[in-house]
Design a protein that fits this description.
- This protein has helices at 14-24, 45-55, 80-83, 95-100, 105-117, 156-169, 186-190, 207-217; strands at residues 2-7, 34-39, 60-63, 89-92, 121-126, 139-142, 174-178, 197-200.
- It has 220 residues and is α/β, with parallel strands linked by helices.
- The protein has eight helices and eight strands, in the order βαβαβαβααββαβαβα.
- The two termini are 14 Å apart.
- The protein is globular, with a radius of gyration of 16 Å.
């Protein structure tokens, strides 16, 4: 099975999000070899959940983060215990959160624990072989800093080498590649033996481009 995970970052209001769902939902291939996840802003989660359910689309809803704390007096935080009503996956430890919000490996590990305790699949982003994978995490995305939002992806061969090294270091690990993924290069990554899918940033905002990415992954 190949994962395709859309990370919208801080983009799209609710109306724009629903328009994306209306375009993408009917076009996603229904194939057991493909798992498609979309991670919008927190504000769009509820309405997108409704749209996916009503349309019976083969889309999984995820969040771009969650709190390292539980419920309680943590103003501004989104706890896993509440998010699990809407999402089944969460992106954790993205390089932008490490850089812009000073997230540490310890904070990411706490978030993984919160996710696992509340039946949310944690997708942890790592920047290389040296980034630790928290206990219990079985899904990661290798995202080299030089490729995030730059239009300059890593080479599929190097990404595969990193993926293989991580799988040798940690048991039962699925490794995705993230960083300037497009419909033109996605096949080069997903056909590598060690890569189990892709984390798509900017290209996922364009509904038609994202449809092309999904369909490209299944091409023979």
């Amino acid at each position: 099975m190949k994962w395709i995970i859309a990370n919208w970052k801080s983009n799209k209001n609710i109306a724009e999000a629903l328009d994306w769902i209306a375009q993408v939902g009917p076009e996603i291939p229904r194939d057991e070899k493909l798992k498609v996840v979309v991670c919008p802003t927190f504000s769009a989660l509820s309405e997108m959940k409704k749209a996916i359910t009503v349309g019976n689309f083969p889309l999984v809803l995820g969040s771009q983060d969650l709190s390292s704390f539980g419920t309680g007096a943590y103003t501004g935080e989104e706890p896993a215990q509440l998010l699990n009503q809407l999402v089944s996956l969460a992106i954790l430890g993205h390089s932008e959160r490490r850089k812009n919000f000073s997230e540490t490996d310890g904070m990411v590990a706490n978030k993984v624990n919160q996710a696992l305790e509340n039946s949310i699949n944690p997708l942890v982003c790592v920047q290389g072989e040296e980034t630790p994978v928290p206990d219990g995490c079985k899904l990661i995305a290798y995202e080299p800093i030089s490729a995030i939002g730059t239009g300059n992806p890593d080479t599929p061969q190097n990404a595969n080498q990193v993926a293989v090294a991580l799988k040798q270091k940690y048991e039962n690990l699925e490794v995705l590649y993230g960083g300037s993924v497009t419909s033109e290069n996605v096949r080069d990554f997903v056909t590598q033996d060690g890569i189990n899918g892709v984390l798509v940033g900017n290209a996922s905002l364009d509904a038609q481009e994202f449809i092309k990415i999904c369909k490209s992954v299944l091409e023979n």
